[in-house]
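Quick illustration, no need to memorize.
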Amino acid sequence: MPRLGLTLLLVCLLPAGVRAQEADRPNVVVILTDDQGYADASAWGGTDVRTPNLDRLAAEGLHFSRMRSNGTVCSPTRAALMTGRDADRVGVPGVIRTAPDNSWGRLAPDAPMLPAVLRSAGYHTAMVGKWHLGLTPSDAPNARGFDLFRGFLGDMMDSYTSHRRHDQNYLRHNGAPIEATGHATDLFTEWAIAYLRERASAAAATSATTTSSRQPFFLYLAYNAPHFPIEPPAEWVARVQARAPDMPELRRKAVAFDEHLDAAVGRVLAALDETGLARDTLVVFTSDNGGSLPHGQRNDPWRGGKQQHYDGGVRVPFAVRWPGRVTAGRRTDHPGQTFDIYATLLDLAGIAPPEGMDAVSFAPVLRGEPMETSTRAMYFVRREGGAAHGGNAYHAIVRGPWKLLQNTPYSPLELYHLDRDPQERTNLADTEPDVLRDLQAVLQRRIQRGGAVPWQ
């Protein structure tokens, strides 16, 4: 049977609660935060931070406790999310930067982009926020499948209120440079809400004039926050200081930044409620990698942080809400990676996946069904320059309870049994040579695949 026919047959066999019929394909909002640590949201164990809106998403949907990002830094995870493939297989093994001599990736022109696939299936597609996958018009969101883009093309902002990077303006409305006033988190929130209201109005107009089904939408809302510089509005810092006067300043600012971001997410959720879109909208929330320890962010109880392949660098908060379809209040220890969002959205929308996809749909988990994961190998790569790295790459692989990793290109391989040693304290590389060789072979094959793709 042809792939498309088989896919449609499988869709028809899904339980009614998650069947992707033309009339009830979900609207989708994917909220991606930047460097938000595992313990920088209270539902995931943060004890000194208050994030009622992120907690609400976890409580009203499915709370994932074992999800990992696709990378320890920004661009690789974003490339994997947008393509459903390992980051180096689409030309993004490292951070794409505004300075060409320190940029370590270029998104492959033929990569099967999530917005383009959804748009071809009838979705309206929009992105608000941080892109970080290319600066030229051919690499920008509108050229990669988004009908609408309002946000920031570059990597990080030197200030959340001036919105510049190296004194260059990377704010865009579609392809046009724009100026804007206000904190970037607030701006992105306002633009996202404006889009949701426009979609609600379009749906109402359609229902008033035709019997055709509504057009579903995909909104990718990628915040710059809480990536450094840690710049919460002063009133949010004052709130934290008033309730926790002994909290160190570094942590106080990080907590305030997270709480300001949480309030922004709350405004988006309120807009979904006010427009009547919430019932038909699947919301996914996660972070692109672990928090940055030098900037006061926390990844407890995991070891390490951003830029490291220890779990503190890749374990991320993750939740999925879909009212009436995903049972509220459940928790799952399903292990997956960020780019599984890609496979899952296509699965729920009844869209045949592109050839060569690495991502795995977790739609069965949303239905409360078991999934076999013990043989899956989760792959991580980072290429970086500078004196410490010399433009080399370093990698990690997780399969079942075992994890093989490097944290610099010149470090020896480390091996951990995560079930027995979740904090990655006891390196077993010398005592488990058979496991080490087996995982090295798996890792080598993934490195070879990625190495076949040009990234400059």
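The longest strand covers residues 27-33.
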